[in-house]
Amino acid sequence: MKTSSKVAVVAGLGAIAGGVAGYYLNSEKGREQRKKAAETIKDQSVKAASYVGDLTSKAKSTAADLASKAQDVLSMANSKAQETKKQVTDAATEVKQRAEQSVSNGYSNITA
């Protein structure tokens, strides 16, 4: 069979299938099926929109919780850093005072 003949047969079969489908979909039963399909599609799109809305809400809530926890950790780290800074400053001041006292005592011992 030639290629052009095969194409003609396929085109003819496609036209017949299209005609049968068109006839069926335009019949009473076909209109009912189209109506059911349209309702099902509408219901599924509403469910999908609701699901996406729920996911969006959960994502926003999770992001807010994570941001809050991160802020708490940052605040605690800052507090610990300030506390450590004060301890180091106090220790350095004490060491300085002892050194000055030692120098002063040593100087007093030399001059006496």
Structural overview:
96% of the residues lie in helices and 0% in strands. The longest helix has 84 residues, at 28-111. The chain contains two helices and no strands. α1 crosses α2 (28-111). It has one domain.
In short:
This protein is mainly α and 112 residues long. Helices cover 96% and strands 0% of the residues.
- Count of structural domains: 1
First and last CA, distance: 129 Å
User: What would you call the structural class?
Assistant: mainly alpha
Report the strand count: 0
- Measured as a percent range, the helix fraction is over 70%
- The shape is rod-shaped
Oligomer: single chain
Spell the H/E element sequence.
HH
Output mean pLDDT: 89
The largest sheet is:
none
Provide the low-confidence segments as ranges: none
Number of helices: 2
Portion of residues in beta strands equals under 5%
Rg (C-alpha, Å) = 42 Å
Write the SSE topology.
Elements: H1 3-26, H2 28-111
Helix pairs in contact: 1-2
Which descriptors apply to this entry?
112 residues; mainly alpha; 2 helices; 0% strand; rod-shaped
